[in-house]
Amino acid sequence: MTEPTASFLDALLPQTQCRRCGYDGCRPYAEAMAAGEADINRCPPGGQETADQLAEATGRDPKPLNPDCGDASVARVARIREAECIGCTRCIQVCPTDAIIGAAKVMHTVIEADCTGCELCVPACPVDCIDMPESTPDTGQPLWPPRRAIDRQRAERSRTLFETRQKRLNHHLSRQRRVNRHDPTSDAQDEAQLADRKLTINNAVARARAKRESSQ
């Protein structure tokens, strides 16, 4: 059997970019599966059907979803109670698809059509003003695997938004390093900023997992 490519496996994933699989997004998870470094049952948003498809694509035995990654919950969409928002930007920092708009000390809001329901913004909010109601056919990440053309279109858009955001962040980091190349403290500052951003995201992932576990 020919080994599947990362792109083929990535196309089977829902593109929520929620990190519940333990990787930094759907593409990194797909790359790990293609390399034989990750199991096929670590995508709760994809559900058991996606796990079965990944098993078939990789020639591995089917497995039930790994409970350590969370349950296969219904699709949801983030909504900010705007009157309570303090404009801290922490939700913006962790949103993998740039679905939250706003600025420091300015009220934020969610672009519902671009929200993947990853839930990373909920534990990142220091005033707990973000809700995750069940999505409707017109908002949020659709159920996966896709049943309608719009489901596939939304997944493709989520992938594009995620990749665009990653390129922007990487470009910003590279530019800062070039601009401050002659400053002996610049590299340490850049690394500190990157580490702080990763810590914010990792903490959000951990808190989201703990919150899901406590609600079960």
What do you see in this structure?
With 216 residues, the chain is mainly alpha-helical. It has a two-stranded antiparallel sheet. It has a two-stranded antiparallel sheet with strand order 2-3. It has 7 helices and 4 strands; from the N terminus they run αααβαββαβαα. The protein has a domain of 64 residues: Electron transport complex subunit B, putative Fe-S cluster (3-methyladenine DNA Glycosylase II, Chain A, domain 3, Orthogonal Bundle). It is 44% helix and 4% strand. The longest helix is centred in the C-terminal third of the chain and has 31 residues.
Shape, principal axes of CA atoms:
globular
The portion of residues assigned to helices is 40-55%
Give the DSSP E fraction (strand runs of 2 or more residues). under 5%
Order of helices and strands: HHHEHEEHEHH
Query: What's the arrangement of strands in the largest beta sheet?
Result: 1-4
Count of β-strands: 4
Query: What structural class do you assign from the helix and strand content?
Result: mainly alpha
CATH class of the domain at 6-69: Mainly Alpha
Poorly predicted ranges (pLDDT <50, ≥5 residues)? none
Distance between the termini: 40 Å
CATH architecture of the domain at 6-69: Orthogonal Bundle
Sketch the major β-sheet: 2 strands, antiparallel
| Global mean pLDDT | 86
CATH fold name of the domain at 6-69 = 3-methyladenine DNA Glycosylase II, Chain A, domain 3
Tally of individual helices? 7
Rg over CA atoms, rounded to whole Å, is 18 Å
By CATH, the superfamily of the domain at 6-69 comes out as Electron transport complex subunit B, putative Fe-S cluster
